[in-house]
Design a protein that fits this description.
By secondary structure, the chain is of the alpha+beta class. Helix content is 18%, strand content 41%. The strands form 3 sheets. Strands 7, 8, 9, 10, 11, 12, 13, 14, 15, 16 and 17 form an 11-stranded antiparallel β-sheet that branches. Strands 2-1-3-4-5 form a 5-stranded parallel β-sheet, with helices on both faces. Strands 6-18 form a two-stranded antiparallel sheet. Bound molecules: NADP nicotinamide-adenine-dinucleotide phosphate and manganese (II) ion.
Length: 266
């Protein structure tokens, strides 16, 4: 079996990375940064986002596991104290995986430039570059609303505890294949109206944004941010691809929610 390790880059994460690499090599696993079967991310959720984007072209062949060197993470749910256990589990036992849904974003341009396609693990947001974002929002090809405001956030179930949560979105269990639309400060008065509530769409309900008067947008895909000019439409849906996490111990999602947001003292 081949493995790779990505580190947040701080001293604690780097030390742990070297230790784990040595242990795994002792168990006769092969270190392969290009084609790993297992990717171990050491740091935080942000480190796992980075690892996901590095290996997003081979998601069907790679399983991820996250160790946290700071606070407990949603993707980084192993503690540094558990790494001996983790190494033995990786080296000695056939591992199980859980799959989480992702978000597909396709951006098309005026004038026929080649479309851009992205996969997000947490979310994709869109904001205007010259003030208020104005977009027509369509669901399954039907006009739904004309949005005016700071921006929109389309998130995955596992990303629902990140930016989406700060916007008042719901937390969705990652066994549910869905995409969530959350508003950022919509303008609502007698002239402009949006639904106001976050929407949760099932897989294969495509959501489409179409510009009204400005065609340049700042689009984020997880921690990455891009400026897109001359946009014709932005399409969102749940793709076929999924991310696979290695599961060695039960650590239920709702317990991670509790320990992250309520308290972790029990
Ligand atoms: P960052 O600004 O350092 O991270 C923001 C925080 O979000 C960190 O504490 C990070 O955890 C946490 N986080 C990441 N994914 C999460 C998840 N699925 N559930 C719960 N918390 C999560 O930037 P980053 O580490 O590169 O992460 C990028 C993410 O930041 C974006 O995908 C977006 O979700 C989030 N963000 C949030 C807001 C907001 O809440 N207002 C605004 C912008 C971006 P770690 O410390 O473990 O890395
Ligand atoms: Mn408690």
């Amino acid at each position: 079996m081949k493995f790779a390790i990505t580190s947040k880059g701080d001293q604690k994460s780097n030390t742990l990375m070297h230790k784990m690499r040595t242990y795994l090599l002792d168990f006769e696993l092969i270190y392969d940064e290009d084609q790993p079967d297992i990717v171990i991310s050491i740091g935080g959720d942000g480190t796992l986002l980075y690892a996901f984007h590095r290996y997003s072209s081979r998601l069907d062949k790679t399983a991820f596991v996250g160790v946290h060197t700071g606070h407990l993470g949603f993707y980084a749910d192993w503690t540094p104290e558990e790494i001996e256990k983790l190494v033995i589990a990786i080296a000695k036992t056939p591992f199980q995986v859980v799959e989480y849904p992702l978000l597909e974003v396709i951006i098309r341009y005026q004038g026929g430039a080649k479309e851009s396609r992205y996969l997000a693990l947490n979310e994709s947001t869109v904001k205007g570059v010259e003030g208020t974002l104005v977009m027509d929002l369509e669901i399954r090809g039907e006009h739904f609303e004309r949005f005016r405001g700071d921006g929109l956030c389309m998130s995955t179930p596992s990303g629902s505890t990140a930016y989406n949560k700060a916007l008042g979105g719901a937390i969705i269990h990652p066994s549910i294949s869905a995409l969530q639309v959350a508003e950022m400060a919509s303008i609502n008065n007698r002239v402009f109206r949006t639904v106001g509530s976050p929407l949760i769409l099932p897989a294969h309900h495509t959501c489409m944004l179409k510009p009204v008067s400005h065609f340049d947008f700042q689009v984020t895909i997880d921690h990455l941010s891009y400026l897109h000019n001359d946009v014709k439409s932005i399409q969102y849906r749940v793709p076929e691809e999924k991310i696979r996490f290695v599961r060695f111990k039960p650590f239920p999602f709702w317990k991670r929610v509790h320990d992250s947001f309520i308290d972790d003292s029990d």
